[in-house]
Amino acid sequence: MSPVVDAHGHVGGWADFFVPEPDSAWLVDVNAEIGIDVVGISHLVAVGRDTVAGNELALAEAGRHPGRVGVWLVADPHLPDAVALLRDQLDHPGVWGLKLHPDTHLCAATDPRYRPLLELAAAAGVPVLSHGQTGSPYSDPADLAELARRHPTLPILVGHAGLWQEGFDRAARLAAAQPNLYLEICGSRLTTRWLERLVAVAGADRVLFGTDACFLDPRLGLGKVRLAQLSDADRALVLGGNAARLLGRRLIIASQETP
Amino acid sequence: MRIFDAHRLLGSVPGDHVPSVDVAGMLAELDRLGIDGAAVTPSHGLYGDPAHEHAAGAGHERLTTVPVILPAVPGAGWPDEPGVVVESAPAMVRACPVRHRFALTGPVALRWWHELAAAGIPLALDAHETGLDRVGSVVAAVPRLRVLVLSPGYRCLRELAELLDVHPGVYAETGTLAAAGAVEWLARRCGAHRLVFGTGAPVWDDAGPRFQLEHLRLPDADVELIAAGSFAALSRGESS
């Protein structure tokens, strides 16, 4: 049976608004109830203000929940020694790859300051998940497609598939045209109708399930994929088959380990 | 468990091609998701000009029409008088003060809200359009008016909880309460009888909220209230 892999999650509180359930314990518990095997998180401390401390918090969460929580290490383009720090952390069990937050870090994804971080990911053979936001000067899907062209061996995941409905079709066409560009689908604006269109245009092998927990409730994200009008084969790819292929041996799933 | 979606649009919507462009398409969507019935707003009442375009009801036993009304000086809104609304006794009405540019707490509208409140007809306001502050202003001015807050979103839970605390006539739609655990948090704080299952489909997602309904970490009685009971009580004029 194909795994169910949430490719885009978080834990921690957030200054901009109240999150009732910010902790990993709740997330892991709910995921087990609804059938999400594992979630890749970046800690919101790392996203928001302190990349170094936040990445350590995320690694600790993966240690507390092995095979239930994976880690996207947040890559900060402003941090002078980021490459050295991340190189060491990439070896930790449960680390999936790097996470870019160009809008939060006020640095366009195509900015040269991201280049050494992307080269690190390519050398380590790990994918990069970036916040993606149609129309943003920092993370428009077209800019993430440009990154994918610059780094053709590096899988780049467009977070939220570009976030806004008016950009979904273009994001899907960008992914269809660039073999190492993928669409990760979490976000409150995506509907099953748009998910079905993303799969039709980009291909089921290019679309990855994500929930944006704990910003968003994982039950909402999973429901969209479970109830979308997709073939069983396509649904399995979206829910976890693609993530398993991209993450390879880095994907550890507790529910599939031999006792 | 009966499941009733208190917020759907019937008809075409700008920027998309949707199955619920007609009643048959709407019913097919409800069937696909296992939803028994829905309160539907004709989309041309929302995106068109209510002063000049008036729809017939949805005309199906599973669908409850929620007309868009526009309180304004005679000739600039619809209908001319709130008594027309009261006489037609809809389960709920919807108003769009920002989209249709009328004063939600101006003298004309306030007279309407007092009449609707006296008749027990609830008002639906889309918080994504109006903001929660306007909702607070209207229920402060007309405390007996019962208001269903559509699309409250997940970023204003503190304000929404305070609004529910202070004004017992305010109810909240659940579909966009998307933050992790938000539905349970509000149910425990304010009571499940204040929460109404609704999605805002086809503009907003319906599948996620429908799936979530099956997996809420609440007592069955609370889930049944959210799924249909709270809206039934709201539309019957029962106080919370």
Automatic annotation (TrEMBL), chain A:
- UniProt xrefs under CDD domains: metallo-dependent_hydrolases
Q: Which GO terms describe its molecular function?
A: carboxy-lyase activity; hydrolase activity
User: What top-level branch of life does the organism fall under?
Assistant: Bacteria
Show where the Amidohydrolase-related domain sits.
30-249
Q: Does the keyword Ubl conjugation apply?
A: no
Instruction: For this UniProt record, give its keywords in alphabetical order, as a comma-separated list.
Output: Hydrolase, Lyase
InterPro entries xref list: ACMSD (IPR032465), Amidohydro-rel (IPR006680), Metal_Hydrolase (IPR032466)
Record carries keyword Lyase: yes
- Name of the featured protein: Metal-dependent hydrolase
Which species does this protein come from? Jiangella ureilytica
Q: What is the lineage of its organism?
A: Bacteria, Bacillati, Actinomycetota, Actinomycetes, Jiangellales
TrEMBL record, chain B:
According to the entry, every stretch annotated as the Amidohydrolase-related domain falls at 103-226
Q: Which InterPro entries match?
A: Amidohydro-rel, Metal_Hydrolase
Q: Which Gene3D superfamilies match?
A: Metal-dependent hydrolases
Under the GO molecular function aspect, what terms does this record hold? hydrolase activity
**Protein name from the UniProt record:** Amidohydrolase-related domain-containing protein
